[in-house]
Amino acid sequence: xxxxxxxxxxxxxxxxxxxxxxxxxxxxxxxxxxxxxxxxxxxxxxxxxxxxxxxxxxxxxxxxxxxxxxxxxxxxxxxxxxxxxxxxxxxxxxxxxxxxxxxxxxxxxxxxxxxxxxxxxxxxxxxxxxxxxxxxxxxxxxxxxxxxxxxxxxxxxxxxxxxxxxxxxxxxxxxxxxxxxxxxxxxxxxxxxxxxxxxxxxxxxxxxxxxxxxxxxxxxxxxxxxxxxxxxxxxxxxxxxxxxxxxxxxxxxxxxxxxxxxxxxxxxxxxxxxxx
Length: 276
Ligand code: OGA
Ligand code: MN
Known about the structure:
Blueprint: E1 5-8, E2 15-18, H1 22-27, H2 31-42, E3 44-47, H3 54-64, E4 79-81, E5 113-120, E6 128-132, H4 133-138, H5 142-148, E7 152-155, H6 157-162, H7 170-178, E8 182-185, E9 187-189, E10 195-197, E11 203-206, H8 211-225, E12 231-234, E13 241-245, E14 249-253, E15 263-269
Parallel strand pairs: 2-3
Antiparallel strand pairs: 1-2, 3-13, 4-15, 5-13, 5-15, 6-12, 6-14, 7-8, 7-11, 9-10
The structure holds N-oxalylglycine (OGA) and manganese (II) ion.
N-oxalylglycine (OGA) binds at residues 81, 97, 103, 114, 116, 128, 251, 253, 264, 266.
């Protein structure tokens, strides 16, 4: 029996979950499994008007998976996504969120999912866009599916940072390069049997391909995966909570002013399957 009601948002990604409040988040024992099923089916779940505090976000997150820990203090599981360096010392790095990406692509196992709770929103801009990488794979021709089956791609932090900082200092480059690079297949064969494309800002080069040719291939695939008809754009209101399945979704923030009060409280769930 369905314990949640969902309403589709985009053509290939996104659904709004209706009828959930803080009480159900904390005490409905059937809700977590229903949410995880809906997440696998829809890629992105939107809960409007929840207005949860950090304690509720962490408690509900723990019911969905293994919550990652970043900082110290009362809620070390909460990472604040804001361009205000007073609220987050690594705010400058968050400019990388303006490009299509998959979280944690330079890690061995990327995170399973991400949850954002909107505490303050931008006056203009700052929407978050999502595109399904399962749908992107399905849209390939049979010939492409065959040709791309064995392609491997190297992902680096440097590739994603260079998109915003084309004239870095040697110190900046050294910091970027101190982060390990990671080689992944272009096509992720999930344990569920589904297949998705692994693309986004961290793609540095295609293994064994001429660099320009490889770049053109990656750019073309990303552009086709994120055409406006494939994208769900979430326009935030304070109190919204959005969860995305990082295994099957590309996402990006639409630009917003660094002086904007936009403040998202983020929890992330440890990954459960390597890209293979
Ligand atoms: C993230 C991210 C996008 C946004 O938290 O991983 O990319 O809209 N956020 O803030
Ligand atoms: Mn991200």
